[in-house]
Amino acid sequence: MTRTLISEEIIAPGTGKAIELLKGQVLRIEQVEGGQCVDFNAFNLHDYKEFMHCGRTRTVHGFNPSAGTFLWSAPPRENAMMYFLADTVGRNDVLFPRCSAFLYESAYGFHDHTNCHDIQAEAQREYGLTPDDVHDSFNFFMFTEVEVGGTVKIDRQSSKPGDHVELLALMDVLAVPNVCGADVMRTSNFSLKPIRVSVFQASAEDLAQVPALPRLASQRTPAQFRNPTIKATRELTRDPAYRPEFTNAPIREETLEVALSGEEAAMLDRLARRELYGDDDGAALRDVLFSWWETRFLTAANGAPSMETDAAG
Amino acid sequence: MPEIAPRTVTLRLNQQQLELLDRTLPRAGVTDRAELVRLALREAAEQEAAR
């Protein structure tokens, strides 16, 4: 089965477009002239409070995700919203949030300037969302690096006409790509260019590429929230009926006595991180224990669902 | 090098940490928590020596 084209349009520089993308549809974001960064947000089409979360996504897939990864929603949902199906360049960013009017005023002196936050806000206003509903963006084609010492930098990008990324919707989403407004920095090689966006009905081959994911109890829905009601006022006022119900609180500690042979005591002395724990053998051994557990049993990095093991089970 | 004397170490573990240990016992093939801690220590020492 081949893909069926559903729609296609050009997004002009300085603009963005909110697109309803249903589960099983593919969004292609394509370079027309090349060298253009595309900022991207996504919302659950049926519950805008669930949105694509760069923090979660970069925790699971690193700072520069490419094809073969997922776009995740924020806790406590933590659903794979979209599958990153194809990427002809292989360089994207989830480190930088999105450029804003403040940046161009504070650093460049502009009173008005195209910026990703305002473009995103204007595009999603078509669906009743406010500027406060813009979230950190997944920045396609943006070339960023973390330098020694922890600083981050943006460099020029190398995308050419026809280069594209493709995202497969795993739920109904409102996908909002926008043409990044940064023309006075390297993000899009110092110019703003149009972008082509196309929506396809996914082929069987597309769908077959998606790795199986486990469904975990911790992937919560509003029906499980203690407060499922979306707040409708701006003022924050205390709920006098509030009674805290923190998970597993109070935390209770117990002692565990572990008899070590002379040989095992010597092992502990070699492994103990005395710079952290001093002469506290119990803390040093606890560190050894849980560090060992990570090495032996943790199959997925940084809290990602362990797709390989859990999904198979 | 002088021999190290046997000693007993007291770990303080909370209910969540203990739950993880208890779930790990069958996966590690041991039957009690102290045995699991000693296994972790021995395997960690082997890994350290192999580096």
TrEMBL record, chain A:
Q: What is this protein called?
A: DUF1989 domain-containing protein
Which InterPro entries has this protein been placed in? DUF1989
Q: Which Pfam families match?
A: DUF1989
According to its UniProt entry, this protein's organism is Albimonas pacifica
Q: Where is the DUF1989 domain?
A: 9-174
TrEMBL record, chain B:
> So which domain of life are we looking at?
Bacteria
Q: Which Pfam families match?
A: RHH_1
Q: Which residues belong to any copy of the Ribbon-helix-helix protein CopG domain?
A: 8-48
Q: Which GO terms describe its biological process?
A: regulation of DNA-templated transcription
Record protein name field: Ribbon-helix-helix protein, copG family
**Naturally occurring in which organism (per UniProt):** Albimonas pacifica
